[in-house]
Amino acid sequence: MKFLFDVFPVLLFFIAFKWGESNPALAQEWVQHFLSGFIADGKAPAEVAAVIFATAITLLASVLQISYLLLKRVKVDAMLWVSFITIMVFGGATIYFHSETFIKLKPTVLYWCYGGALLLSQLIFKKNLIKAAMSAQVQLPETVWSRLGLVWIAYFTLMGLANLFVAQQFSTSAWATFKLVSLVGIMPAFIIGQSLFLSKYIEDTEA
Predict the structure, then answer these.
(1) Which of 9, 54, 147, 194 can pair with 61 through a Cys bridge, CB separation 3.0 to 4.6 Å?
(2) Residue range 149-170, pLDDT digits in tens
(3) What pLDDT does 197 receive?
(4) What angle do the packed helices 49-71 and 2-22 form, to 10 degrees?
(5) How far apart (Å, rounded) are the C-alpha atoms in residues 90 and 15?
(6) Does the structure show a pLDDT above 70 at 133?
(7) pTM
(8) H/E stretch holding 162
(9) In whole angstroms, how far apart are CA 92 and each of 18, 57, 59, 88, 154?
(10) What stretches pass through the bilayer (predicted)?
(11) Is the dihedral of CA 16, 97, 172, 110 positive or negative?
C-alpha cells in the first residue's frame, strides 16, 4: 500500500498523458482555460498540451499526497520530500515554459539526488543510509551493508542515465511508458533480486 501511495502521482501522470495524447484538442482547450495564467506567454502549443495537462495533474496529486500525510500527522520521509520538491520545480518549469524538457529531466535529477546522497553519506560522513533505513528489520555484516549501499548507488546512477537516453532518443509517449515501467516493473524486480541476495545472510544470522 505504501508503494502504491508513493507512485500514485506517477500513475496519474501516465493516465493523464495518455488521455491527453488521445484527445489533443480537448487537452489543449483545458490547459488553455485552466492554466494559461501559469504559462509564460499565456499560450499552450498543441504539441505539448498533453504533457502540460499531465504535469498539472501530477503537481496537484503531489500536493494532496503531502497534505494528507501532514494532516494525518504521519512523518513524511526524506525521499518523498525530495520527490515532492523536484516535481514542483521541474513540473512548474514545464508548465511555465510550456516545454516537456523539464519534466523529462525530473526523474534523472531525482535518481541522481538519491544516489548522490548515498554516496556522499558513505564517503564523507561514514554513514550508510541503507543500513540506517533497514537495520531495524535486517541484521547484516558490515561488508554486506557497504556492498548494498554501492549497489543502490549504481542502480540510481544507471536509472538516471537510462531516463536521459529514453527521453532523448524516443518519443514523449515512449518516455512516459518507460517512466511508469521503471517504477512498477524495474524497481520491484531490483528489490526482489536484492531480497534474494540478502536471504542467505538472513538465514545465516538466524542459524
Answers:
(1) 9
(2) 999 999 999 999 999 999 999 9
(3) 82
(4) 160
(5) 19
(6) yes
(7) 0.90
(8) helix 142-169
(9) 20, 11, 8, 6, 29
(10) 51-71, 78-97, 109-125, 145-167, 173-192
(11) negative
